[in-house]
Amino acid sequence: MRHTGSGTAAAASRPEKGVAIVLAMGVAAMAAMAATAIMVTQSTWMRQRELSAGHAQAQVLVQTGLDWVRVVLSEDRRTTAVDHLGEPWALRLAPVPVEQGELAGYIEDQQGRFNLNNLVSGGKVSPSHLAQFKRLLAVLELPAELAEALADWIDADSEPQPLGGAESEYYLALDPPYLAANRPLVDASELALVRGFDDVVRARLGPFVTALPRSTLVNVNTAPAEVLAATIEGMDLDVARGLVAQRERAYFRSADDFISRLTRGLAVSPGNISVRSDYFLVTMRVTIGEAQARGTALLVRDGAAWPTVIWRKYL
Protein backbone atom coordinates (compact mmCIF):
# COMPACT_ATOMS: atom_id res chain seq x y z
CA MET A 1 0.00 0.00 0.00
CA ARG A 2 2.82 2.36 0.79
CA HIS A 3 4.30 1.60 -2.64
CA THR A 4 1.02 2.38 -4.30
CA GLY A 5 0.58 5.61 -2.30
CA SER A 6 4.09 6.74 -3.18
CA GLY A 7 3.44 6.14 -6.83
CA THR A 8 0.18 8.07 -6.68
CA ALA A 9 1.89 11.07 -4.99
CA ALA A 10 4.68 11.06 -7.55
CA ALA A 11 2.15 10.93 -10.36
CA ALA A 12 0.23 13.85 -8.85
CA SER A 13 3.38 15.94 -8.50
CA ARG A 14 4.32 15.61 -12.19
CA PRO A 15 1.40 17.74 -13.48
CA GLU A 16 2.11 20.33 -10.80
CA LYS A 17 5.74 20.54 -11.91
CA GLY A 18 4.61 20.77 -15.52
CA VAL A 19 2.29 23.64 -14.67
CA ALA A 20 5.08 25.38 -12.78
CA ILE A 21 7.43 25.03 -15.74
CA VAL A 22 4.82 26.38 -18.13
CA LEU A 23 4.13 29.30 -15.78
CA ALA A 24 7.84 29.99 -15.45
CA MET A 25 8.25 29.92 -19.24
CA GLY A 26 5.24 32.25 -19.59
CA VAL A 27 6.70 34.68 -17.06
CA ALA A 28 10.04 34.59 -18.87
CA ALA A 29 8.36 35.15 -22.25
CA MET A 30 6.37 38.07 -20.89
CA ALA A 31 9.50 39.55 -19.39
CA ALA A 32 11.28 39.16 -22.71
CA MET A 33 8.36 40.75 -24.54
CA ALA A 34 8.29 43.63 -22.08
CA ALA A 35 12.03 44.14 -22.48
CA THR A 36 11.69 44.03 -26.25
CA ALA A 37 8.82 46.52 -26.14
CA ILE A 38 10.88 48.86 -23.97
CA MET A 39 13.82 48.56 -26.34
CA VAL A 40 11.62 49.14 -29.42
CA THR A 41 9.96 52.14 -27.78
CA GLN A 42 13.31 53.57 -26.78
CA SER A 43 14.71 52.90 -30.26
CA THR A 44 11.67 54.48 -31.89
CA TRP A 45 11.96 57.51 -29.61
CA MET A 46 15.65 57.84 -30.41
CA ARG A 47 14.87 57.48 -34.13
CA GLN A 48 12.14 60.11 -33.99
CA ARG A 49 14.45 62.40 -32.10
CA GLU A 50 17.18 61.93 -34.72
CA LEU A 51 14.70 62.55 -37.56
CA SER A 52 13.30 65.60 -35.78
CA ALA A 53 16.77 67.03 -35.27
CA GLY A 54 17.67 66.23 -38.87
CA HIS A 55 14.50 67.88 -40.14
CA ALA A 56 15.15 71.00 -38.06
CA GLN A 57 18.68 71.17 -39.45
CA ALA A 58 17.32 70.67 -42.96
CA GLN A 59 14.86 73.55 -42.51
CA VAL A 60 17.70 75.83 -41.44
CA LEU A 61 19.57 74.91 -44.61
CA VAL A 62 16.45 75.60 -46.70
CA GLN A 63 16.40 79.12 -45.27
CA THR A 64 20.13 79.44 -45.97
CA GLY A 65 19.52 78.42 -49.56
CA LEU A 66 16.73 80.99 -49.85
CA ASP A 67 19.05 83.74 -48.61
CA TRP A 68 21.62 82.66 -51.19
CA VAL A 69 18.98 82.99 -53.93
CA ARG A 70 18.17 86.51 -52.74
CA VAL A 71 21.84 87.42 -53.12
CA VAL A 72 21.88 86.01 -56.66
CA LEU A 73 18.75 87.93 -57.71
CA SER A 74 19.94 91.14 -56.08
CA GLU A 75 23.28 90.96 -57.89
CA ASP A 76 21.54 90.16 -61.16
CA ARG A 77 19.34 93.27 -60.90
CA ARG A 78 22.38 95.38 -60.07
CA THR A 79 24.30 94.28 -63.16
CA THR A 80 21.60 94.06 -65.87
CA ALA A 81 18.12 95.32 -66.72
CA VAL A 82 17.27 92.32 -68.94
CA ASP A 83 16.26 88.89 -67.63
CA HIS A 84 16.65 85.80 -69.81
CA LEU A 85 17.15 82.06 -69.45
CA GLY A 86 20.90 82.22 -70.05
CA GLU A 87 21.56 84.03 -66.77
CA PRO A 88 22.97 82.32 -63.66
CA TRP A 89 19.67 82.55 -61.74
CA ALA A 90 17.95 80.43 -64.41
CA LEU A 91 20.35 77.51 -64.05
CA ARG A 92 19.29 74.70 -61.74
CA LEU A 93 21.52 74.46 -58.69
CA ALA A 94 23.41 71.19 -58.80
CA PRO A 95 23.11 69.29 -55.49
CA VAL A 96 25.57 70.81 -53.03
CA PRO A 97 27.01 68.41 -50.44
CA VAL A 98 26.31 69.33 -46.82
CA GLU A 99 27.08 67.34 -43.68
CA GLN A 100 25.35 63.95 -44.06
CA GLY A 101 23.28 65.17 -47.00
CA GLU A 102 22.78 67.63 -49.84
CA LEU A 103 21.08 70.90 -50.79
CA ALA A 104 19.43 71.40 -54.19
CA GLY A 105 17.14 74.02 -55.66
CA TYR A 106 16.06 76.14 -58.59
CA ILE A 107 14.54 79.53 -59.47
CA GLU A 108 11.60 80.06 -61.84
CA ASP A 109 10.67 83.39 -63.39
CA GLN A 110 6.97 83.88 -62.70
CA GLN A 111 6.58 86.62 -65.30
CA GLY A 112 7.19 84.10 -68.02
CA ARG A 113 3.74 82.75 -67.11
CA PHE A 114 0.23 84.13 -67.49
CA ASN A 115 -0.66 85.99 -64.30
CA LEU A 116 -4.18 84.82 -63.43
CA ASN A 117 -4.80 87.95 -61.37
CA ASN A 118 -4.45 90.03 -64.54
CA LEU A 119 -8.00 88.87 -65.35
CA VAL A 120 -9.41 91.50 -63.00
CA SER A 121 -8.36 95.11 -62.52
CA GLY A 122 -9.95 97.33 -59.91
CA GLY A 123 -12.49 94.63 -59.14
CA LYS A 124 -13.69 94.48 -62.76
CA VAL A 125 -12.90 91.94 -65.47
CA SER A 126 -10.24 93.02 -67.98
CA PRO A 127 -11.58 92.11 -71.45
CA SER A 128 -8.10 92.01 -73.05
CA HIS A 129 -6.65 89.68 -70.43
CA LEU A 130 -9.79 87.53 -70.44
CA ALA A 131 -9.25 87.10 -74.19
CA GLN A 132 -5.58 86.20 -73.60
CA PHE A 133 -6.51 83.55 -71.06
CA LYS A 134 -9.07 82.09 -73.42
CA ARG A 135 -6.39 81.84 -76.10
CA LEU A 136 -4.13 80.03 -73.64
CA LEU A 137 -6.94 77.62 -72.82
CA ALA A 138 -7.48 77.01 -76.54
CA VAL A 139 -3.78 76.31 -77.10
CA LEU A 140 -3.89 73.81 -74.22
CA GLU A 141 -7.15 72.31 -75.53
CA LEU A 142 -9.09 73.25 -72.41
CA PRO A 143 -12.67 74.61 -72.23
CA ALA A 144 -13.02 78.37 -72.81
CA GLU A 145 -15.63 78.71 -70.05
CA LEU A 146 -12.92 78.13 -67.45
CA ALA A 147 -11.83 81.71 -68.05
CA GLU A 148 -15.27 83.06 -67.14
CA ALA A 149 -15.50 80.90 -64.02
CA LEU A 150 -12.14 82.18 -62.81
CA ALA A 151 -12.99 85.79 -63.62
CA ASP A 152 -16.12 85.46 -61.44
CA TRP A 153 -14.05 83.94 -58.63
CA ILE A 154 -11.74 86.97 -58.61
CA ASP A 155 -13.99 89.93 -59.52
CA ALA A 156 -15.77 91.97 -56.87
CA ASP A 157 -19.35 91.65 -58.12
CA SER A 158 -21.91 88.85 -57.77
CA GLU A 159 -23.05 88.76 -61.41
CA PRO A 160 -22.00 85.54 -63.22
CA GLN A 161 -20.21 85.84 -66.54
CA PRO A 162 -22.39 84.81 -69.50
CA LEU A 163 -20.41 81.68 -70.47
CA GLY A 164 -19.63 79.26 -67.65
CA GLY A 165 -19.55 81.91 -64.94
CA ALA A 166 -20.03 80.97 -61.29
CA GLU A 167 -20.59 83.21 -58.30
CA SER A 168 -21.38 82.39 -54.66
CA GLU A 169 -24.83 81.03 -55.52
CA TYR A 170 -23.16 78.15 -57.37
CA TYR A 171 -20.61 77.39 -54.62
CA LEU A 172 -23.17 77.56 -51.81
CA ALA A 173 -25.05 74.69 -53.47
CA LEU A 174 -22.01 72.42 -53.16
CA ASP A 175 -21.27 70.02 -50.31
CA PRO A 176 -19.63 71.48 -48.34
CA PRO A 177 -20.81 74.98 -49.34
CA TYR A 178 -18.50 77.99 -49.54
CA LEU A 179 -18.41 81.50 -51.01
CA ALA A 180 -16.62 82.81 -54.09
CA ALA A 181 -13.44 84.60 -53.03
CA ASN A 182 -14.16 87.88 -54.88
CA ARG A 183 -10.49 88.81 -54.50
CA PRO A 184 -7.17 88.07 -56.27
CA LEU A 185 -5.63 84.64 -55.88
CA VAL A 186 -2.81 84.38 -53.34
CA ASP A 187 -1.47 81.22 -54.95
CA ALA A 188 -2.38 79.25 -58.06
CA SER A 189 -3.25 76.25 -55.87
CA GLU A 190 -6.52 78.06 -55.05
CA LEU A 191 -7.74 77.04 -58.51
CA ALA A 192 -8.84 73.78 -56.88
CA LEU A 193 -11.81 75.71 -55.42
CA VAL A 194 -12.95 77.19 -58.74
CA ARG A 195 -15.66 75.62 -60.88
CA GLY A 196 -14.23 73.33 -63.56
CA PHE A 197 -10.61 73.39 -62.39
CA ASP A 198 -10.26 69.70 -61.58
CA ASP A 199 -6.99 67.81 -61.13
CA VAL A 200 -6.54 67.22 -64.87
CA VAL A 201 -7.13 70.87 -65.76
CA ARG A 202 -4.78 72.15 -63.05
CA ALA A 203 -2.03 69.74 -64.08
CA ARG A 204 -2.32 70.92 -67.70
CA LEU A 205 -2.35 74.60 -66.77
CA GLY A 206 0.29 74.40 -64.05
CA PRO A 207 3.46 75.14 -66.08
CA PHE A 208 1.91 78.16 -67.79
CA VAL A 209 0.13 80.17 -65.09
CA THR A 210 0.91 81.94 -61.84
CA ALA A 211 -0.82 84.19 -59.30
CA LEU A 212 1.01 87.41 -58.51
CA PRO A 213 -0.13 90.18 -56.15
CA ARG A 214 -0.34 92.86 -58.83
CA SER A 215 -0.82 93.18 -62.58
CA THR A 216 2.34 92.17 -64.46
CA LEU A 217 3.75 92.09 -67.99
CA VAL A 218 4.85 88.91 -69.75
CA ASN A 219 8.63 88.52 -70.03
CA VAL A 220 9.10 87.41 -73.65
CA ASN A 221 12.58 86.13 -72.83
CA THR A 222 11.31 83.49 -70.42
CA ALA A 223 7.72 82.76 -71.51
CA PRO A 224 7.08 79.34 -73.10
CA ALA A 225 5.65 79.25 -76.61
CA GLU A 226 2.14 78.61 -75.29
CA VAL A 227 2.13 81.83 -73.27
CA LEU A 228 3.55 83.85 -76.18
CA ALA A 229 0.82 82.52 -78.46
CA ALA A 230 -1.81 83.53 -75.88
CA THR A 231 -0.34 87.00 -75.38
CA ILE A 232 -0.20 87.92 -79.06
CA GLU A 233 -3.51 87.73 -80.88
CA GLY A 234 -3.32 85.79 -84.14
CA MET A 235 -0.03 84.02 -83.35
CA ASP A 236 -0.13 80.26 -83.75
CA LEU A 237 1.93 77.86 -81.69
CA ASP A 238 4.45 77.10 -84.44
CA VAL A 239 5.30 80.79 -84.87
CA ALA A 240 5.67 81.13 -81.10
CA ARG A 241 8.02 78.15 -81.04
CA GLY A 242 10.09 79.84 -83.75
CA LEU A 243 10.47 82.92 -81.54
CA VAL A 244 11.55 80.72 -78.63
CA ALA A 245 14.19 79.14 -80.89
CA GLN A 246 15.38 82.62 -81.94
CA ARG A 247 15.85 83.83 -78.38
CA GLU A 248 17.93 80.76 -77.54
CA ARG A 249 20.46 82.10 -80.03
CA ALA A 250 20.03 85.76 -79.09
CA TYR A 251 17.70 86.90 -76.33
CA PHE A 252 15.40 89.88 -76.85
CA ARG A 253 17.10 93.05 -75.59
CA SER A 254 13.91 95.14 -75.39
CA ALA A 255 10.19 95.01 -76.11
CA ASP A 256 10.88 96.81 -79.40
CA ASP A 257 13.48 94.18 -80.31
CA PHE A 258 10.86 91.49 -79.79
CA ILE A 259 8.22 93.36 -81.80
CA SER A 260 10.67 93.85 -84.67
CA ARG A 261 11.06 90.07 -84.98
CA LEU A 262 7.33 89.38 -85.30
CA THR A 263 6.09 88.15 -88.64
CA ARG A 264 3.98 90.50 -90.77
CA GLY A 265 0.41 90.84 -89.60
CA LEU A 266 1.19 90.28 -85.94
CA ALA A 267 1.31 93.11 -83.44
CA VAL A 268 1.45 93.47 -79.69
CA SER A 269 1.33 96.50 -77.45
CA PRO A 270 4.56 97.21 -75.54
CA GLY A 271 2.22 97.62 -72.56
CA ASN A 272 1.69 93.84 -72.50
CA ILE A 273 5.26 92.59 -72.74
CA SER A 274 8.63 93.14 -71.11
CA VAL A 275 12.18 91.76 -71.05
CA ARG A 276 12.64 92.01 -67.29
CA SER A 277 11.03 90.34 -64.31
CA ASP A 278 10.34 91.16 -60.70
CA TYR A 279 8.71 87.95 -59.41
CA PHE A 280 10.51 84.64 -58.94
CA LEU A 281 9.51 81.34 -57.36
CA VAL A 282 12.27 79.58 -55.43
CA THR A 283 12.20 75.87 -54.61
CA MET A 284 14.77 74.39 -52.21
CA ARG A 285 15.20 70.79 -51.07
CA VAL A 286 17.53 69.56 -48.31
CA THR A 287 18.30 65.98 -47.32
CA ILE A 288 20.04 65.22 -44.01
CA GLY A 289 20.40 61.47 -43.58
CA GLU A 290 16.84 60.20 -43.91
CA ALA A 291 15.30 63.56 -42.97
CA GLN A 292 14.12 65.89 -45.72
CA ALA A 293 12.84 69.46 -45.84
CA ARG A 294 11.43 71.27 -48.84
CA GLY A 295 10.55 74.93 -49.09
CA THR A 296 9.11 77.25 -51.71
CA ALA A 297 8.99 81.03 -51.65
CA LEU A 298 7.72 83.80 -53.90
CA LEU A 299 10.18 86.68 -54.10
CA VAL A 300 9.81 90.16 -55.56
CA ARG A 301 12.59 92.59 -56.39
CA ASP A 302 10.61 95.71 -57.29
CA GLY A 303 13.34 98.28 -56.86
CA ALA A 304 14.39 97.20 -53.38
CA ALA A 305 18.05 96.44 -52.88
CA TRP A 306 17.16 93.10 -51.36
CA PRO A 307 14.37 90.85 -52.77
CA THR A 308 11.32 90.67 -50.52
CA VAL A 309 9.57 87.42 -49.57
CA ILE A 310 5.87 87.59 -50.52
CA TRP A 311 5.12 84.19 -49.02
CA ARG A 312 6.96 81.00 -48.13
CA LYS A 313 5.94 77.40 -47.48
CA TYR A 314 7.83 74.60 -45.75
CA LEU A 315 7.00 70.96 -46.40
Can you put this structure into words, describing what you see?
This protein has 8 helices and 11 strands. By secondary structure, the protein is α+β, with helices and mostly antiparallel strands. α2 crosses α3, α2 runs antiparallel to α6 and α6 crosses α7. It is globular. It has a 5-stranded antiparallel beta sheet with strand order 1-2-9-10-11. A two-stranded parallel sheet has the order 3-6. 44% of the residues lie in helices and 17% in strands. The protein has 2 domains: 90 residues, Pantoate--beta-alanine Ligase, Chain: A,domain 2 (2-Layer Sandwich), CATH 3.30.1300; 151 residues, Orthogonal Bundle (Ribonucleotide Reductase Protein R1, domain 1), CATH 1.10.40.
In short:
This protein is α+β, with helices and mostly antiparallel strands and 315 residues long.
* Number of E-state strands: 11
Question: What is the percent of helical residues?
Answer: 40-55%
Q: Name the poorly predicted regions.
A: 27-51
CATH class of the largest domain: Mainly Alpha
Architecture blueprint of SSEs:
Blueprint: H1 2-79, E1 93-98, E2 101-109, E3 114-115, E4 120-121, E5 124-125, H2 127-139, H3 145-154, H4 168-172, H5 199-205, E6 209-210, E7 218-219, H6 225-231, H7 237-249, H8 255-260, E8 273-274, E9 279-288, E10 291-300, E11 308-314
Parallel strand pairs: 3-6, 7-8
Antiparallel strand pairs: 1-2, 2-9, 4-5, 9-10, 10-11
Task: Please tag this protein with its features.
315 residues, alpha+beta, Ribonucleotide Reductase Protein R1, domain 1, 2 domains, five-stranded antiparallel beta sheet, two-stranded parallel sheet, 8 helices, 44% helix
